[in-house]
Amino acid sequence: MTKQEIIDEWARNRMVEQLLSTQTQWKGNPYIDDLAQDIYIILLNEDDELIERLYNEGALVFYTIRIIKNNLYSTTSEFYYKYQKFRKFSNELSEKI
Q1: Mean pLDDT per 10-residue run, the chain (97 residues)?
Q2: Would you tell me which of 48, 55, 56, 76 could form a disulfide with 3, CB atoms 3.0–4.6 Å apart?
């Protein structure tokens, strides 16, 4: 299978979303769907041979989990700067005005 076919299959089966659901402390986070999309983009930007090799060796799940953990728990990740930092330093608007 080619990299595109692998990632298409993963997207149809919602594999990244399933892997994200194993991170229980992040359930209910409003940005989890955005992170899933970011993970798919990261995978699409990886080298074709790397994704194909990892898939054939059965290691793509572990590789993806590492990407997820790096994004969720690192304060230098793109996910942190795009979503978490903003959420951390902003206040919810109340409907009372």
Answers
A1: 93 91 71 87 94 95 91 76 62 59
A2: 48
Nearest to 4 by CA among 45, 57, 44: 44
Let me know: does 20 contact 72? Beta carbons within 8 Å: no
Helices (H) and strands (E) in the chain, counts: 7, 0
Please state, in angstroms and rounded to a whole number, the distance separating the CA atoms of residues 80 and 87. 9
**pLDDT for res 45:** 94
> d(Cα 76, Cα 24) in Å, to the nearest integer?
21
pTM score, whole prediction? 0.77
Largest CA-CA distance found in the chain, in angstroms, rounded: 57
Residues 68, 85, 75, 69, Cα dihedral to 10°: -10
Rg, C-alpha atoms of the chain: 15
